[in-house]
């Protein structure tokens, strides 16, 4: 699988013959100023929750690519009102089959509201099973035993966790989460964007390594293979 990191918690995975984008927040991120959202490919866009730093560019990219936006019922309804044409609702506990494979929604422990302050439903994460491999994106979350449900549904090739602390899990809890979901490869997200989530990358990589885990921290705009 090819993974491209676009900064903060935005990344895409090419799997099952499709490009799957997660939590598009690019134009508001100074660290991602060299990324042109008009050049981003997407067949599907998964939105984990309603905070601006996870959905700012979803409408623009969806309209540009024709991608299907997937999120909980409130997110589904919100983007429908924003004029997005292709939408699919997926609430925690639900699963659906797409042309790339299967996706199942899992609850996250996090707050969620739309930019106007409106209720954005329950924050979520997503596990995907594809012909090229399986992975889990937790979305913004604290450490929760609900993560132990993921490997009951599918074995993972990698997981994507927030590691910036303060607003989400930090390194220590993300290491614990890797054990809960039973994977040794972690793509770290949700760090450095704001002053209170700065990360010492070298120390983080070393801490994961002490537990026999590989922490992947690609540069913004970089594509890696897993």
Automatic annotation (TrEMBL):
Residues 7-190 form the Metallo-beta-lactamase domain. This is L-ascorbate metabolism protein UlaG, beta-lactamase superfamily. It comes from the Bacteria. InterPro entries: Metallo-B-lactamas, RibonucZ/Hydroxyglut_hydro, UPF0173_UPF0282_UlaG_hydrolase. SUPFAM superfamilies: Metallo-hydrolase/oxidoreductase. Pfam families: Lactamase_B_3.
